[in-house]
Design a protein that fits this description.
Radius of gyration of chain A: 19 Å
Order of helices and strands of chain C: HEHEEHEHEEHEHEHEHEHEHHHEE
Number of helices of chain C: 12
Number of strands of chain C: 13
CATH class of chain A: Mainly Alpha
CATH architecture of chain A: Orthogonal Bundle
Structural class of chain C: alpha/beta
Largest sheet of chain C: 6 strands, mixed
Distance between the termini of chain A: 10 Å
Chains: A mainly alpha, B mainly alpha, C alpha/beta
Number of strands of chain A: 2
Distance between the termini of chain C: 16 Å
Largest sheet of chain A: 2 strands, antiparallel
Helix content of chain C: 25-40%
CATH class of the largest domain in chain C: Alpha Beta
Radius of gyration of chain C: 20 Å
Strand content of chain C: 15-25%
Oligomer: heterotrimer
Strand order of the largest sheet of chain C: 2-3-1-4-5-6
CATH topology of the largest domain in chain C: Rossmann fold
Strand order of the largest sheet of chain A: 1-2
């Protein structure tokens, strides 16, 4: 069904790049429309697109449904808070710290979780996510569940460049493009094909000498590290960090974004994140009962378009299919 | 101290049985139909709300309970007909997404119909009050009723699945549907019944706990995760496992919360023990789940496939 | 603290409205958690604010006013974004909200840096009361610890020698128990920390029964409180007095009913508080929304009345003048009297309240006795305003 990236530019990669290019037009268009707030919304979309992309690596390509992925969002966010508390405000150092913490957490929790399959994997990742959540809830030094406010956004080479919303947006977008490029290359590489192979048939892979566990664990760690970057950016956007970022409902929302867009295509993950944030933004502005409408739309998508939005588009434009 | 410990053990077991009541329907649908139903929590909530509505309008707890049971059965049938039967052959992830959507729709629907303020369900005269236990301790009669209901549900389910022809067909249907259909059984009708039964069990649990717990729009979300923990610890699809898992979770949570800090104080200085207790207490059941799954990846009583 | 502007001017404002109809309306963001489980608190606050606007004929200080309702969804990051939209894109000069302290921490920056005033109808976290006080934040409710400190004072005066404390195991729980312990002079028998969203309290109730304290003090908001209070009565513990904060109020009482009768809490307002205009407010609220208002509604109502009086005095052009007016103007409060301290948290009277059944059958809190007058919060001294 969804064999990742063959040689040359696949339709999906083109679609993803087109999405990123379209997003790059948001700030000038927002300025034209006289509504600078659109840029803020677009930043949030891009942040969650990164998180959804990272989840797609394990869920879409490795068929590992992680129900604790928001933990990495939280680890990235807390990396900003902890670094800032100790006087380190540089964005790159914070990203490195968040990624290191996430890699460690993913390595330990992944090594245990990957012994299980199916619903058991879903629930054991939830367990680790909840442990991380409750750890930060009881962390009084950082406000416990009340969270902590950041004095300012991170600095880039010692300068407060991110304070400007437009600059911040383009930094987030650059991160998104980088994450996409990285994951696209990864999916097309021997590693990515082996990972997808473990999904199709574990036995066959073992027979030809692959050790699926190692591939899965490596993918799990990489995915967590990329997601932590989204966490660093989310903390910067809101200038506030709290355990609410890693609640299990947030993990569920990440899965929903991915399924809404279509799994295993990368472009679908981005489209799903964009659509989810946009829908929430539109519906919530319309009625406090927006969850009803959102639920109905989700149900409609899953009942009538099993492959998510990308599947829908593929069906509407058959010639662009593969 | 020893007396109190025993009592807390009993309290933990009683909480476990309460969890089992909710988990029973979930493990039934999951185990037999291999269907992940995230909407189980909202069905439980719906049971409590219907109970509140019927008990108030009829003025009788028992009449309300009967009507709530019937209503959740109907809701289960309607949902199966509208949504779930389209999802049996789909991958688990589609089921997750669809039932997550249903969760949003039903929670918001409940809020629109009954408002967001918590509701009250009066306790029946027959089951109110408390009986004396050791010393100044008393035990509420209603809790005893919940324990009896939970045990009865466990026994009934176990008997139905292992001892009746219906149960046998259902188990066969789950593992090889075309075969059972070829033998002349209308399997889709059976699935419809199982699903409705699962919904009714969820509704029964919600209605039964409504005099003890807050009936509010968040009650479904809270219980959902706990019940998933229970059935995963026990092994998906095993009623025995769900029962054991529920007891384990109930006892671990209750005893750990109360005695954890006391035990920690024996090995650490009080300030550090208090801090460690605060950090560890909410994680306990998740630590338990992670430990059990790393020891037995398919839960305590789970089958080894999948 | 008080200036000369009188109730009469606020009432007269309605008549002035047509004169300024040409001007741009005053925009006010109302940012509350309106979806998800704890929505009922936000609904009370929103309805209180809307009732005030209706009472004022849709104007604030004689200028036409537009209220923009936004849902914080209980998520701090979403709330921060919506606050920015309200202030930067919709041009709100005021934001009324939020309910929860963690949301307050997230929206305080976006609102005040965007040039708007934040008017809190409930959350009064200590971070904004002491060194972190902000001239653009007006907390119209109370400082978070105060209701607990008042209960501590009451426990002293009632002669309770030993008390068991119970609260959920998270930051707000610690803070509230800390507030009680700050003023309570007797023995704290034990502190029971419970899980967030805990369903079954039989283990804690067994501990309480075993200890037989003179009284119990609880901070268990929302559904947790409903579970606890119902089970407290069922376990036959009604003989031990129960004091609490944020546990037995008009948002949870409909679910607790008889189980909560006679339980104590504290507040600077109650539906039956004998203050000018309060009975009319409660009556209008019940008529409009079909339920007895909780403190969230009363404080949001007060916040709008305060804004109305301040705009009537200073207009909206000069922000500094408006800020001064907000700080000092006299407005018709349902609490009888009201004044801000130097940290722009209220200095006000606190009462002991008890759960009673009203004549119409509804359950509500009732003001029993004055516990402390002109209560200043514990952090105000650390605020170096000006």
């Amino acid at each position: 069904m969804s064999r990742p990236a063959q040689r040359g530019m696949s339709g999906r990669a083109k679609a993803a790049l087109a999405l990123i290019a379209l997003m790059a037009l948001v700030p000038p268009l927002a300025a034209l429309a006289g509504d600078p707030f659109l840029t803020v919304v677009a930043s949030r979309m891009a942040v969650f697109a990164i998180a959804a992309l990272s989840l797609d690596l394990i869920l879409g390509f490795g068929a590992l449904v992680s129900f604790g992925h928001a933990a990495y969002l939280g680890l990235g966010a807390y990396a900003v808070a902890v670094c800032a508390r100790h006087g380190i405000t540089d964005l790159f150092v914070q990203i490195a710290a968040g990624a290191a913490a996430s890699a460690l957490f993913a390595l330990v929790s992944g090594a245990i979780s990957l012994r299980t399959r199916g619903i058991y994997f879903i629930m054991i990742t939830l367990a680790f996510g909840q442990m991380a959540y409750f750890f930060f809830v009881s962390l009084s030094a950082y406000g416990g569940d009340d969270g902590t406010t950041l004095a300012a956004r991170s600095t880039v080479f010692g300068r407060p460049l991110l304070e400007n919303d437009t600059v911040f947006f383009y930094v987030v977008l650059a991160c998104l493009a980088t994450a996409f490029g990285l994951l696209h290359r990864l999916a097309g590489s021997r590693f990515g094909r082996a990972l997808a192979g473990t999904r199709e048939s574990e036995l066959r892979m073992q027979a030809i000498g692959f050790r699926p566990f190692r591939y899965r664990l490596a993918a799990y760690v990489i995915s967590g590290m990329i997601c932590s970057v989204a966490g660093v950016l989310l903390a910067n956007q809101t200038e506030y960090v709290s355990p609410a970022y890693m609640a299990w409902t947030r993990s569920g929302e990440l899965i929903v974004m991915l399924l809404l867009g279509g799994i295993g295509t990368l472009a679908g993950a981005m489209a799903g994140a964009l659509a989810t944030v946009a829908l929430e933004e539109l519906l919530a502005g319309w009625s406090e009962h927006w969850r009803l409408g959102f639920g109905l739309i989700l149900l409609g998508v899953v009942l009538w378009s099993p492959a998510g939005l990308t599947g829908l588009i593929r069906r509407l434009l058959p010639e662009e299919g593969r | 101290m020893a007396n109190l410990f025993l009592l807390q053990l009993l309290n933990g077991a009683q909480f476990g049985i309460l969890l089992f009541l909710v988990a029973a329907g979930l493990t039934l649908v999951f185990g037999i139909m291999d269907f992940i139903n995230l909407a189980h929590g909202v069905l439980y909530m719906l049971g409590a709300y219907l109970m509140a509505m019927f008990a108030l309008s009829t003025g009788s707890f028992w009449l309300g309970l009967a009507l709530a049971l019937g209503a959740t059965l109907v809701v289960g049938l309607v949902l199966e007909w509208l949504v779930f039967r389209r999802l049996y052959d789909r991958p688990h992830l589609d089921q997750v997404l669809a039932t997550f959507a249903l969760m949003m729709i039903l929670s918001e629907g409940v809020k629109i119909l009954w408002g967001s303020a918590p509701l009250n369900v009066a306790m029946p005269e027959l089951l109110s009050g408390s009986v004396p236990l050791a010393g100044p301790l008393r035990y509420p009669v209603y809790r005893i009723a919940i324990i009896v209901a939970g045990l009865a549900t466990a026994l009934g389910l176990w008997a139905m699945i292992t001892r009746t022809r219906v149960g046998m067909l259902l188990r066969a249907g789950a593992s090889n549907r075309p075969m059972v259909a070829a033998l002349g059984t209308d399997i889709s009708k059976f699935f419809m019944l199982v699903f409705a039964l699962g919904a009714m069990l969820a509704g029964f649990a919600g209605a039964l706990v409504s005099p003890v717990l807050s009936v509010d729009p968040g009650m479904g979300d809270q219980i959902l995760i706990l019940t998933f923990v229970v059935i995963v610890i026990g092994g998906v699809g095993s009623v025995k496992g769900a029962f054991a898992g529920a007891l384990l979770v109930g006892i671990t949570d209750t005893v750990g919360r109360i005695f954890g800090p006391i035990w920690l104080k024996m090995v650490m200085d009080p300030a550090a023990a208090a801090q460690a207790g605060r950090v560890l207490a909410p994680m306990l059941i998740y630590l338990l789940m992670a430990a059990i799954l790393s020891w037995r990846p398919n839960g305590l009583f789970g089958r080894s496939t999948r | 603290m008080m200036k000369s502007t009188m109730t009469a001017l606020a009432l007269g404002a309605t008549a002035l409205a047509p004169l300024s109809a040409l001007a741009e309306p005053v925009k006010v963001g109302v940012l509350m958690t309106l979806s998800g489980p704890p929505a009922v608190l936000g609904e009370h606050a929103r309805d209180g604010a809307l009732l005030a606007l209706k009472t004022l004929g849709g104007t604030l200080g004689g200028q036409e006013a537009e209220f923009i309702i936004a849902d914080a969804e209980g998520k701090p990051d979403i709330a921060a974004q919506k606050a920015r939209r309200l202030v930067e894109s919709d041009g709100a000069a005021f934001v009324i909200g939020p309910i929860f302290s963690n949301v307050m921490a997230a929206i305080a920056g976006p609102v005040t840096e965007g040039g708007a005033f934040l008017m809190s109808p409930n959350a009064g976290p200590s971070v904004f009361a002491g060194e972190g006080c902000n001239p653009d934040i007006f907390v119209v409710s109370y400082q978070n610890d105060q209701p607990d400190q008042v209960m501590g004072e009451y426990a002293n005066s009632a002669g309770y020698g030993s008390v068991v404390l119970i609260a959920p195991n998270y930051q707000a729980g610690m803070d509230h128990l800390g507030g009680f312990k700050r003023t309570y002079e007797g023995t704290v028998t034990t502190e029971l920390l419970t899980q967030l969203g805990q369903l079954d309290y039989s283990a804690e109730l067994a501990q309480i029964a075993a200890f037989q304290p003179d009284a119990v003090y609880a901070f268990l908001p929302g559904g947790m409180g409903v579970n606890f209070v119902k089970q407290y009565a069922q376990a036959g513990l009604s003989g031990i007095p129960m004091m609490s904060s944020f546990t037995t109020d008009e948002t949870t009482l409909p679910a607790m009913q008889d189980a909560a009768l006679g339980m104590f809490s504290s507040g600077s307002w109650a539906p039956d508080l004998d203050a000018p205009g309060n009975a009319e407010f409660v009556e209008a609220f019940v008529a409009e929304y079909g339920r007895v208002p909780a403190s969230y509604a009363a404080y949001a109502y007060d916040a709008v009345m305060l804004m109305d009086a301040a705009i009537a005095e200073a207009g909206t052009e000069d922000r500094d003048a408006l800020r001064d007016a907000l700080k000092t103007v006299d407005f018709p409060t349902v609490r009888g009297k009201f004044a801000f301290g130097q940290n722009q948290f209220p200095v006000q009277d606190f009462y002991l309240t008890e759960v009673v059944q009203r004549e119409d059958g509804a359950y509500a809190t009732s003001a029993k006795e004055l516990v402390v007058a002109d209560y200043v919060d514990a952090y105000a001294g650390a605020c170096a305003a000006e």
